[in-house]
Design goal:
Length: 496
């Protein structure tokens, strides 16, 4: 081997090493293409050069050129007769007949996992004594450069895609947290973040969702979040509590009723039809009878229903979100809940963590409800005393977020000044004392005492008391009949 050949090979090897070090990290695709072009033209003494990348589907990526047109179309025209060989991974040499083109061209493919993601093309090799032809060594060297460049471009694109996804997810999660706060679902604990991330992923899919969690954890608010982030967000969200009505009324409420079923009965649309195009939320779905489960299964499977007393099959299009605190799996095994319906409702399951397992959210929720009810009752600027906050943090909240909301609402009403203390929170005596051993009160006794304090605060107005307690007036009457029959049956009711 001559000294010239040895020096030439050493130069090519050094160039490959330098290029690998230069583009070995994560660099933007534009920089990789520019570096590849300069190395190829400079090392092989080409008069012209072109490096161009492409995306899947043939869309042009980045193009850089020296004394040539910098475009994917120009590259394809120069090596059009050899595209098949380039796509297979081989280097080519052609002599274009097109006017203005170099007299001799070599090209190499940028391949990544058998996908052609770019082309490297050089034209007219020059030396001090004039133009000389490219040889096989030049083509092998160019193929090595192109292969290294392809790996660098793929890395650049992968990192860029990851960063775009990260930014998109961050934006979506931020938007979801904003909507969650507007809907009253406040929290920054890990269980809440994980739940919101699952909501963000499932909401756009249209899949049926089942919410699992104890009473009072905020299942309807999560259902509204799913609806808000779905493609159905501009259409109705219709909730129905299956445990709040007897079966005879629940069937009509859910499926609607035809005119003439009974004397004086006019046609009325059910919740399913009212939710057409939007989202139907069925809370406590485990309370449906087997007969109603069968009718609901038809809606889920066939996307149609029949009103009570009717024969017309009515097509329906809706997204179904259900919720329960019951053990549906056990109910399925006992034959109390249809297995086929169970699997169609629980396509995706979202678990809601009880408040006692995410105590770091208690201060956030407490301040949220202080602001909310302070504005509503015209008592802004209220705050919790350190002792009151400590009592809340120590309490286990068997009623979860709903219980905390009702406690804060009542405290706002009862607060004599700007600071809410332990006395206004109406926590069970053992909770204030620091442990269950401090009191022998039953839960019923605690509830009775709390209702009495709220009624006293609103001067006997049962409608206002029911609103503060978070229950309807009929439920309050039932509780009063149980706790104090004489008071419940009296005429003292200052409701408007």
């Amino acid at each position: 081997m001559s000294t010239f050949d040895r020096n030439w090979r050493e130069l090519q090897l050094e160039t490959l090493v330098d290029l690998s070090l230069s583009i070995g990290g994560v660099r933007p695709e534009e920089q990789v293409v520019e570096e590849l072009l300069q190395r190829a033209v400079g090392t092989l003494d080409a008069r012209t050069g072109l490096v161009v990348t492409q995306h899947s589907g043939g869309r042009e990526g980045v193009a850089r050129a020296v004394a040539m047109t910098a475009s994917l179309d120009a590259a394809r025209q120069l090596v059009s007769e050899e595209m098949e060989r380039l796509a297979a991974g081989g280097a080519v040499r052609v002599a274009p007949a097109r006017d203005g083109a170099p007299s001799e061209i070599i090209g190499a493919p940028m391949l990544w996992q058998r996908d052609l993601i770019g082309l490297v093309i050089l034209g007219d090799k020059e030396a001090r004594w004039g133009q000389i032809p490219f040889d096989e060594g030049d083509m092998r060297f160019l193929l090595s450069l192109a292969t290294m460049g392809a790996a660098a471009v793929w890395t650049s694109r992968t990192v860029a895609a990851i960063e775009r996804d990260r930014q998109r997810l961050a934006d979506e999660n931020r938007a979801l947290r904003d909507v969650a706060q507007r809907e009253g679902f406040v929290g920054e604990s890990r269980p809440v973040r994980e739940m919101l991330d699952l909501v963000r992923r499932v909401a756009p899919t249209g899949a049926n969702v089942m919410l699992r969690g104890e009473s009072g954890v905020g299942k309807e608010r999560v259902a509204r979040l799913i609806h808000s982030f779905s493609e159905r967000a501009e259409l109705p969200f219709v909730p129905l509590n299956c445990a709040a009505l007897p079966e005879s009324l629940l069937e009509a409420e859910l499926f609607g009723i035809e005119e003439g079923v009974a004397t004086g009965v006019s046609r009325r649309l059910g919740k399913i039809e009212l939710a057409a195009g939007g989202t139907l939320f069925l809370d406590e779905v485990g309370d449906l009878s087997l007969a109603l489960q069968a009718k609901l299964l038809r809606v889920v499977q066939e996307r149609e229903l029949e009103r009570l007393g009717g024969r017309e099959r009515i097509p329906v299009d809706l997204r179904l979100v259900t919720a329960t605190h019951r053990d549906l799996e056990d109910m399925v095994e006992r034959g109390e809940f249809r297995r086929d319906l169970y699997y169609r409702l629980r396509v995706v399951v979202v678990e809601l963590t009880p408040l006692r397992e995410r105590k770091t959210d208690i201060p956030l929720l407490a301040h949220h409800f202080l602001h909310l009810y302070g504005e509503r009752f015209g008592k802004t600027g209220l705050r919790l005393s350190p002792a009151a906050m400590a009592a809340l943090m120590a309490y286990r909240f068997p009623g979860n977020v709903r219980e905390l909301e009702n406690l804060i609402q009542a405290a706002v009403v009862l607060a004599p000044g700007d600071v809410i203390g332990e006395a206004e929170l109406a926590l069970p005596a053992w909770a204030v004392a620091g442990g269950p051993s401090g009191s022998t009160e039953s839960l019923e006794e605690v509830e009775q005492r709390h209702i009495a304090r709220v009624l006293q605060a609103v001067e006997g107005n049962r409608m206002a008391a029911a609103r503060i307690l978070g229950i309807d007036r009929s439920t309050l009457y039932r509780k009063l009949r149980r706790f104090a029959p004489d008071d419940a049956n009296s005429d003292i009711d200052k409701s408007p």
